[in-house]
Amino acid sequence: MAAPIVVALGGSLLRPEEAERHAWLAKLTDILAECKVPVGIVVGGGAPAREAIELAKPVIEDISALDEIGIAATRLNASIVAQVLQGAGLDVCNGIPSDVLSASRGLSTHKFVVMGGTRPGHTTDNVAIRLAVESGASRCLIATNVDFVYTSDPRSNPSAESIEKMTLDDLQAIVGPPIHGKAGGSGVIDPIGVQAAIDNQLPLAVLDGRDLSRLAKALSGLAFTGTLIEVR
Ligand code: UTP
Known about the structure:
By secondary structure, the protein is an alpha/beta fold. The protein has one domain: Acetylglutamate kinase-like (Carbamate kinase). Helix content is 42%, strand content 15%. The protein has 8 helices and 9 strands. Helix 2 (46-56) runs antiparallel to helix 3. The chain is globular and about 40 Å long. Residues 10-12, 44-46, 49, 67, 70-71, 74, 117-124, 127, 183-186 line the site of uridine 5'-triphosphate.
């Protein structure tokens, strides 16, 4: 069977606060239905993760305990995506795997596997990168709510510049060392995932998943608007 592709879908893309969420989910389903290769989809926690972690923070200090709450939210979002795809008749592995090994096995017998987080200490970016390595994917696509990797955070630095092509080492210089500082909320890509990509020589891509035509192009191997991150 052809090598799979792994996509990290940022939880913010589910946009529970916006009316277009149904159209977005329907378009995602259409795009995946057209896909010629197996796809592993790793869904982030988005608003439910942020809300639940903020609710618990004043009474829970332990980062791992807060991470577990974030993981539960990622699995909730993964269930939404899995049920939508299954409901549309796509060949989705039953259940939400709780580790990358089971998810990778699922990808050898089903066209799609949908999962969320696994264990404390990182985010779903790292899970997606690990799943890509485990399943022999050629690249891991990070679909998020920014259009490119920037030289610094464009929210706090208006003169930050977008980057179309870079290396994993360049990316590590931007995201910093592989440390999980706090539960919930990270930069453009989890630095622990970037280290895993470096260790396993896995190319990445970052694109704006709000515009699903970009994801469709990337999944088809066509040029897309976003940042390509090569091994060197
Ligand atoms: P996300 O993957 O959504 O991370 O997991 P994030 O960086 O906070 O969100 P985005 O990418 O900016 O949208 C939510 C939280 O769940 C915990 C972490 O606390 C993470 O911040 N988590 C998630 C884990 O501890 N382990 C996992 O495998 C996944």
